[in-house]
Amino acid sequence: MAGPTRFEVYSEKYKDLFFMTRHDGILEVRMHTRGGPLQFDWTAQAAYGNVWSDVGRDPENEVMILTGTGDLWQIGNPEVWTTKFMDWPNRRKLEFYHESLRMIENMIHCLDIPTIGAINGTGSHWQLGTLCDITICAEGTAFFDAHYLGGVPPGDGIVLALQQILGTKKATYYAYTGMNMNAQTALDLGLVSEVLPREQLLPRAWELAEMIMQAPRSTRQLTHSIVSHPWKKALAKDQGLQLTHQLVDMAIDEEGIYERLMKIKERFQRNGR
């Protein structure tokens, strides 16, 4: 008989990308590659949608903390673009579209529990941390979107997050300029709610999770439903359109984006510099 997914099964299944620990209903998901910062590739992208589904179907998970390893959130890898998107097989292009959507949509639609993003440093795909109900970050973290600088329309969810949190004009400015937003600016603009020394980040995330756990389960889950509803509306309204615009441009880009991304590679690897 089919039943809920089990922690022992999916924590082992995803162990090469996500270290998972659980204590008294609080699940910590820590992204990694061989014990260091997660090095993003297409395997990781596909795994995201699946891990949110498995975590969400386990009733023993009552609060989730998402964080990275070391001093980086995750590392963007320009080498995944050595083959131009226009030269990808059509079936793989379609898979990429769905994987890109599930990466963030499943986080919102499959997790019916409070979530805390503990952004431990600079890195790509930081929108995952801001999709959480509460987002805190380490001092020295820089937030930026390098899509436009790399010659790609920004459709993977970062600009959607900026639009939802900062508003249209500020989001547009950061999309076009690719300018760094330091941790203090992110706090001032409301992208994060707390900035802490890195060594205090996870203890504070657990403190917040334990505070959330003090309320009844129904209160926790229904509060999460209320606070995540604007994300559900934004994803349904805009994310498919934004991603499609990005992929259309990539599909007609004869030059390819690898060389352009290599010029700004360091931005993904060391504190935005």
Summarize the structure.
The chain is α/β, with parallel strands linked by helices and 273 residues long.
Provide the spatial order of strands within the biggest beta sheet. Answer: 1-2-4-6-7-10
What is the CATH topology classification name? 2-enoyl-CoA Hydratase, Chain A, domain 1
Largest beta-sheet details: 6 strands, mixed
Proportion of strand residues: 5-15%
Q: Overall mean pLDDT score?
A: 93
Indicate the CATH class.
Alpha Beta
Protein name: Enoyl-CoA hydratase
Family: Belongs to the enoyl-CoA hydratase/isomerase family.
GO molecular function, one term: catalytic activity
Organism: Paenibacillus apis
List keywords for this structure.
273 residues, alpha/beta, 2-enoyl-CoA Hydratase, Chain A, domain 1, six-stranded mixed beta sheet, two-stranded parallel sheet, 10 strands, catalytic activity, Enoyl-CoA_hydra/iso, Enoyl-CoA hydratase, ClpP/crotonase-like_dom_sf
